[in-house]
Amino acid sequence: MSLGLALPVFAYNIQDISDTPVLNDFVLGPGKIEIFADPGDEANRELLITNRMGKTMNFRVEIEDFRGSRDNPEAAVVLMGQEKGPYSLKDYIKPEIMDFSLGHGQRMTLPIKISIPQDAEPGGLYGSVIITTSDPKSDLKSEQGKATGQMKIVTRLGALFFVRVSGDVKESGFVKDFTLKNNQKFYEQAPVFFNVLFQNDSSVHLQPYGTIEIKNFFGKKIDEVKLDPWFIMPDSIRTRGVQWDKKMLFGRYTATLAVNRGYQDIIDQKSVVFWVIPWKIVLAGLVILFLIAWLLRWIIGSFEIRRKTA
Fold it and tell me: How far apart are CA 61 and CA 158, in angstroms?
């Protein structure tokens, strides 16, 4: 006889991954998810969480907004904790479950639903799914640990969700600066380090990309460094470091940056000049030349003395 009770059906699943090494960590992927949506749309995505801790662990799912920064260009994003961000997505992200446990070598496929409200304005919405883990044994002893002053170690990883709601948006950004790291103009040898500072004044994140072209003293192109797309949050600035490594360098070089802003094919260009002087090699060469000159002078002098005494 049926009791007429509807049992919940969960879309998540857990798999056993054979030969999983013990690395004392867990893996979350993908780390970045982009979604293009209209107001009222629903999107479904999945996150994969793999336990490599060597033992069973508890996991908890949390939702946080994130934003960019105008004060710290080194920070790609700033997590907002319990606060709402200026482009908040946290109320629209719904994980399938919020708590679960995984044994070593088990992988959870966690469905995430993103529901965009009908009245959403065009532009960017940004939120993150944070996965935290802790040892079940330490959870059982947490009260005792608090009493003895011990701290429970919790590991956190996050997946960033970038949602762009369709419609007219403000797109405005530019390369604010292109410099050598620490304003270093002279190098003994490669690598040479560049900093690209991009400012985004848009209502959506931008993903600029480009190249750095290197020319020698004679204006001849000797190399080119490709800059893959990177993201800058709305109303923020972000620095990207670039390393150029090439052997056998000597003299004056010019590096020219060309960056596509990521919209309307607008290109920003800036240049810097630097020198590569391998002074140790140059000094050794001068010493050798001096010794050769001294030796030749000694030989010539000895020859003249012998000729005079002959």
Answer: 10
Query: Which of 129, 147, 119 is CA-nearest to residue 93?
Result: 129
pTM: 0.81
As a whole number of angstroms, the distance between CA 130 and CA 111 comes to 14
- How far are the Cα atoms of 58, 61, 183 from residue 130, in angstroms, in the given order? 14, 6, 37
Q: Are 39 and 165 in contact (CB under 8 A)?
A: yes
**Domains located in the chain, CATH noted:** 13-165 (2.60.40.10), 173-277 (2.60.40.3880)
Question: pLDDT, tens digit, for every residue of 171-214?
Answer: 999 999 999 999 899 898 889 999 999 999 999 999 999 999 99
252-274 per-position pLDDT tens digit: 999 999 999 999 999 999 999 99
Read off the pLDDT of residues 35-74 as tens digits, 9 standing for 90 and up. Answer: 999 999 999 999 999 999 999 999 999 999 999 999 999 9
